[in-house]
Write a structure and sequence with these properties.
The structure is a homodimer of 145-residue chains. The first copy, chain A, has 145 residues and is mainly alpha-helical. Helices cover 59% and strands 8% of the residues of chain A. Chain A contains 6 helices and 3 strands; from the N terminus they run H-H-E-H-H-E-E-H-H. Chain A has helices spanning 12-37, 43-54, 59-66, 70-82, 104-115, 129-143, and strands at 57-58, 86-90, 98-102. In chain A, strand 2 (86-90) and strand 3 (98-102) form a beta hairpin. Chain A is elongated. The model of chain A has no long low-confidence stretch (mean pLDDT 90). Chains A and B meet through helix 1 and helix 6 of A and helix 1, helix 6 and helix 7 of B. The structure holds a DNA duplex (30 and 30 nucleotides).
Chain lengths: 145, 145
DNA sequence: CCTGAATATTTCAGGATGTCAAGTAACCGG
DNA sequence: CCGGTTACTTGACATCCTGAAATATTCAGG
């Protein structure tokens, strides 16, 4: 069989692409940390705040989205709350639940943060519209499993 | 001034691609952490070990590649060394320098780790060779600036 | 209604990562 | 030999993260 379903040893081209994706990931992460740092935020704080800038979420949901333990979320929200970027609200439907929500200030910082993300936006400008469409389709198919 | 140098609002397509790249980054990172965890390694430990599996490096160079302070590298190498995956060697040319090198065991673990990286390899298998080549070229151009 | 299991959050202990400042050892140019 | 620089380590401290235990609340059954 010329095309095995599970190639143990991937071909050179695949390895090259994996390598490139690794580089993109490193660049993206570094850029994200830097953008966060400009607002005196850590990476995890910035990620949590970005989530909350879309919609308020209970602590449990936050932990699921961030793929970490709920006890960890407590601390991160604590620090953001002490800076007035996030607040805890009671859930009227379930008094066990605390809903974390970004304050106005938090939303503003989250927006600045998004706009401060230069990587992926700048180099993308060097691609034609057709190429960007093509890249979008390829990435979409990679993520759709 | 009210008009910053680049208030450019990127188009919808570009934002979509940025979003997708963010998803890819999240998936890649999660996969990497998981693969590292299977060898009882943390992410930073796995990254450092991977670097050393290519070639031995002095502590200073490691800090540069990992984009962190040298004092931080000390601790990570300490933990890897205490597990026999890495060793410190003196540099005959400069006695201030300590060269960190992966042991045989360390190289073996690094190889296992590379092969345990399922993401980016599996979904890539769903792309044709032409598509993978196209993806490679697009990513290359993104990184080349 | 009461009781016990399950759920949401927090707290605590402990390890890992990261920064920064200070200390030690070694190099190097005069 | 001396003074400045470089490489690494150490120590103090903040953050992130997990896992176990504590608290409060919900919910299902009897």
């Amino acid at each position: 069989m010329s095309t095995p379903s599970k190639p143990r040893r991937p071909d050179a081209l695949t390895m090259e692409v994996v390598e490139l994706i690794g580089d993109v990931v490193a660049r993206f992460y570094a850029d994200y940390e830097e953008a966060a740092g400009e607002h005196a935020l850590t990476g995890p704080q910035a990620r949590l705040l970005s989530l909350l800038s879309l919609e308020p979420l209970p602590m449990r949901k936050l932990a699921q989205k961030l793929k970490c333990e709920p006890s960890n979320v407590t601390g991160i929200v604590d620090r953001l709350e002490s800076r007035g970027l996030v607040e805890r609200r009671p859930d009227p439907a379930d008094r066990r639940v605390k809903v974390a929500a970004a304050t106005d200030e938090g939303c503003r910082v989250a927006r600045d943060l998004r706009e401060g993300l230069h990587f992926a936006r700048e180099p993308l400008a060097g691609l034609s519209e057709d190429e960007r469409r093509s890249l979008r389709d390829l990435l979409s198919r990679m993520l759709a499993d």
